[in-house]
Amino acid sequence: MTSPNTPAPGSELFTAPLWGDLEVRSAVHPGTEAGRERNLRRLRGRRLFADERAFEWYRSWDLEGLVGAVYPYVDDVGLDLCNYATTFMTVYDDQFEGTSATASAEAAAEVRTCLGVIDERTDVPATSPLTGIFAEIWHEWLRAGLSAEWHARVRTDWVYCLTSMAHERVALRTGKPLLLDQYLWLRRGTSYMPLFLDLIELAGGRECPRIAFHAPSLQIMRCITMDVVNYMNDVLSLHKEMARGDNDNIVLTLQGTYDCSLDEAISRVCASVREQVRRFTELHGRLPEMCADLGLSGEETEAVLGYGHGLECWIGGYDPWQRSSARYTTAFAQRPADQRWAFRMGRT
């Protein structure tokens, strides 16, 4: 295990002005700390953590701080929904990180357990506390008073993101960086970003009208948000993932595409972040005009603008959080590179 006093590979990136000032708004939810305590109490009761060390390791990630930074506009009920879902998505993802390519069948079997919950099967085995937590989340989301179309979209997004966990293991078999189209499809799923963006409506208590949600400009903004957050994460996770032999990283994809050095690939990623955020800002500014063109009511327009604001909060709030989270800043000191990155799940 690397000494905490030894600078980890890539640690200089955490203080570098990688993409400069993106000039997007950000804020922090005033109830972040109270929400943190509520979430930790709830998790304590679910036997998620194998021991106290695992619990403290989880706390060091500051996931509740992420939620407070990217959902600053929700009420306390919405904050709790976001915290619980973020815990599940992140800890569930960690159960697959650092596993070998030969574990793809095992990963697929684990994923099928959660798919069984979605399909409302009664024979779903309780393979871990995470299965029970996912069932809670799924049924909480089912009770949301949103449209049938929203629920259909969320069901599709859950299946997409969960199955991406297994497909990521399959992709490791190549031992090569992913091509860009492969990367974008897989990474959007493994990051759970579609679901994180679905929470804008669920936790915010206001659904984006479907005539506007499917507008090209809003769909482009949604894709930009997913990709920008993933690109930011990939740059700061690069050396950790290289040590594990992962290939689901935009830096490695661009290095392979352009046959260039890592430094040049990082520069290309940072330039892409800046350009995509510029495009996002341009489209964001046109949302009122789009709403007028579609003849939306005042209430519908507020919902569209609120959704746009929710996307902006992700772009503005994510990077400051990841630069201070021990999930990334002290990753090498926390766990050896050749073992599972996260703590092992407490099995039932």
From TrEMBL:
Highest taxon of source: Bacteria
Keyword Metal-binding: yes
EC number(s) given by UniProt: 4.2.3.-
Record field: transmembrane: none
InterPro entries (alphabetical): Isoprenoid_synthase_dom_sf (IPR008949), Terpene_cyclase-like_2 (IPR034686)
GO molecular function, one term: terpene synthase activity
Keyword vocabulary terms for this entry: Lyase, Magnesium, Metal-binding
Cofactor(s), by name: Mg(2+)
UniProt record similarity statement: Belongs to the terpene synthase family.
Full protein name: Terpene synthase
